[in-house]
Structure formats: structure tokens, C-alpha cells
Amino acid sequence: xxxxxxxxxxxxxxxxxxxxxxxxxxxxxxxxxxxxxxxxxxxxxxxxxxxxxxxxxxxxxxxxxxxxxxxxxxxxxxxxxxxxxxxxxxxxxxxxxxxxxxxxx
Length: 105
Known about the structure:
It is a multi-pass membrane protein. The protein is flat, with a radius of gyration of 14 Å. The chain is mainly α. It is 83% helix and 0% strand. Helix 1 (2-23) runs antiparallel to helix 2 (29-49), helix 1 packs parallel to helix 3 (55-78) and helix 3 (55-78) runs antiparallel to helix 4.
């Protein structure tokens, strides 16, 4: 169950990261409320996952999921560049996440 908590915590991290962009520095109410809510849920789920998973592994995977998802949505939603080196780096982060999952309890 801890891995599921961690996965969803990472998804909510993506939500709050994208929400930060839409909130325009917390000047827009609805995106700001969404962002703060997603932050709280993400941290709560991370805390649940940390009951059984090693801190370093869980934190690295949590931030990795957030990084990958946010980078992909940055390209899709905000026309950020999708250069080959950027994509390669995202793939390397994904490989690191998979590696940590494979070697962790």
C-alpha cells in the first residue's frame, strides 16, 4: 500500500506544481486553493508512504514523479521546449525511479 500512497503523492505533486503556474503567484483564487489543497494531499500521502518505505527512496521517487510529470505538462500546456536532450534527461530520471523501485523493499 505504501507504494500506492507514494505514486498518488507524486501525482498530487504534479498537480500543485502546475497549479503554481496557473495561480500566478497566488493571485488567482481558484488555482491557489487547488494548489494548496494538492500540496496538503501530496505531503499527507508522502507521510503515509514513509511509515514503511525508506526516506531516501521515497523522497527521490516522489520528487522524480513530480519532475517527470511537471516537465511533460510544461511541454504540453505551456509550450516549453521538447528538445532531445531534455527528453533524454527525463528518461534518465524515469530510469532512476524504476531502479530505486527494483532495489527497494
